[in-house]
Every structure is written in structure tokens, then in C-alpha cells.
Amino acid sequence: MRNLMIIMSVLALIGCQAVPVNQPVHNAQSSNNPAVAFTVEDVGDGIYVHHGAHLDIDEGYQGDICNLSFVVGSKGVAVIDTGGSLKVGQQLREAIRKVTSLPVLYVINTHVHPDHIYGNAAFLADAPQFVGHDKLANAMETRREQYQKLNVRLLHADAAGSELVKPTMIVKDQLTLDLGDRTLALTAHPVAHTNTDVSIMESKAGTLFAGDLLFIERTPVVEGDINGLIAELEKLKASPAKQVVPGHGPVTRQWLAALNNAQHYLNTLLTDVRVSIKKGLSMESAMESAAATEKNKWQLFEVANRRNVNTIYPALEWE
Predict the structure, then answer these.
(1) Is pLDDT larger for residue 258 or for residue 31?
(2) Average pLDDT over residues 182-194
């Protein structure tokens, strides 16, 4: 049963997006065009973001589906998420070298999902501190076999070399990293999107990296606890951020609206599934009806919403 839940959570994650990867180019946004190069958006003050595109798994998962970021300080670089394969991680590293020759001091994983962690190996030669939630190493090990099988099945040759690199520095509650002219304040969250969520508040540009606590445009994904995710989104509203980098979707300065949008979807989903259970409706029936009013507000709603119902329905039955 645990293996099945892991597989479903991965499919919920990677079954909704994929983006092709080629050679690095910076200062331009990526698109859904398979011919477009690996690109990095310069969002100002030493903050750079590579965006994954909103594509379904039927278009081909290539390990490049989420936001990958790096922050350039006066002492060195912090990387925030590294992609779903060694190949993507190498492309990210090459993009960093086009921007700066400063050393990579930290590689931070915002959570355990494979599209965020399998590029870590590309940075081993830099000898950074690999940073993550205090439960991340155990979660990586627990999922190792299932993730490897899925990588081989979905990435084929590109799965080669995509080994798990566990954290060498953990975040139990709060942790501050020094990049010289700026700091990164890391927060380990209770169970929400997963049980390994970390957010990062950068001091100089006022940038919050929310990881997959926040989705913009694409339907939010729930693996951990929907109530916990709603609660953590509420806490993020107290952030001093000027702009927010979500786990998936565009960088935004309208981040309060983005948090509210995600909460509205999740609250609607939660309410509708509870109503279905109270009425004695099956999970399959709930998949068809839950959060239907949100359908036209989110990309890839059909597949992601059904998988969210699959995740939360069994837990809510026991409330």
C-alpha cells in the first residue's frame, strides 16, 4: 500500500508537466515549445529562475517540470532545486556559470519530489552543503527504489547518473545561510504538500521561494495533508516578501492573490470531498464532482484534481 501511495504521489506530480531541455540560455523565459532551449529568467538583484512548462505526461516527461532557481551573493551561489535528472542539473549548472564564476556554496531542496532533487548530482564537484528538511534524507531513502523505477520508465537514457544526493545540512525549524551581501532564511514546515517542505526567504531582493507549497497557473498538488497545506499557505501571508517564486508557475509580485487562489481551490476541494463522503458517494464519483467550480481556473485540472481526490478521500473518510 505504501509503495502504491508513493507511485500515485509521483504520478500526481509528474503527470501534469514536462518541458524539453536543450542548451542553456539566460535572461529569457522558457516556453511550451519543444524546440526551445533551457532558459533562465533574470528577475533582478541576483535572482535567477528556470521555469518548467505546463505539459501533460502524454507529451513526454523529461525531468524538467518545475522552477529551478539560484541566488548570487557576494560570497557565492545558492541553488534552490536542481531538476529531475543529472542532465537537467548539468544544464542548470552551465546556466549558473554563464552568470557567475563564484562558487556554489549551497544546494537547497524544497522537498522530496523527484523533479526537484535528481539534479543534485551535477553539483557534487562543487562540494557545496546540500540542504534540506530534517526528514528529507529518510524520505529519499524510503522512495529510492520507486523513484528509480519511475525515472527509468519515464526518462529512459536520461535517467542515467541521476543518483540521490542527501542533505549534509538539515533544517529542523529555522536555518540562516550567509551569501555575503544577503542571507537566506530557511523554514522547515509541518506536513503540507509533503512531509519535507522547506521555504526560503531571501533578504536583499525580498524574494520568497515557496517550493510546492504554492502553485500558480497549474492545479495545486496534495501529497501530504490538505489541512496542513491550507494552514501553511495562511502562514506565508505574513511574509515580508516583495516577490514570490512558486514551485510551479511564474514569479509574481501579486503573491497574496496567488496564495488566496491556491487556498480557495484547496478549501473547495476539501469541502466537496467531505460532502461526497457524507452523502455516501464513492471516491470515483467524488473525482468527477469535487472542486468542479475551479475547473476553468487551473491548467491540467482534470488529471491533477482526480489524483488529489485519490489522495485525500481515504484520509477524510476517517475524520
Answers:
(1) 258
(2) 98
Rounded to whole angstroms, the Cα distance separating 221 from 13 reads 7
Show the CA angle centred on residue 113, arms to residues 232 and 139, nearest 5°.
90
Instruction: Phi first, then psi: give them for residue 305, nearest 5 degrees.
Output: -65, -40
What residue ranges do the domains of the chain occupy?
Answer: 2-316
Q: Are 185 and 203 in contact (CB under 8 A)?
A: yes
Instruction: Report the candidate in 250, 240, 211, 41 with the shortest Cα–Cα distance to residue 133.
Output: 211
Q: What is the pLDDT of residues 134-174, one digit of tens each?
A: 999 999 999 999 999 989 988 999 999 989 999 999 999 99
Q: What is the mean pLDDT of the chain?
A: 90
Q: Is 130 left (phi over 0), alpha (psi -120 to 50) or beta?
A: beta
**What's domain 2-316's architecture?**
4-Layer Sandwich (3.60)
**Predicted TM-score of the model (pTM):** 0.91
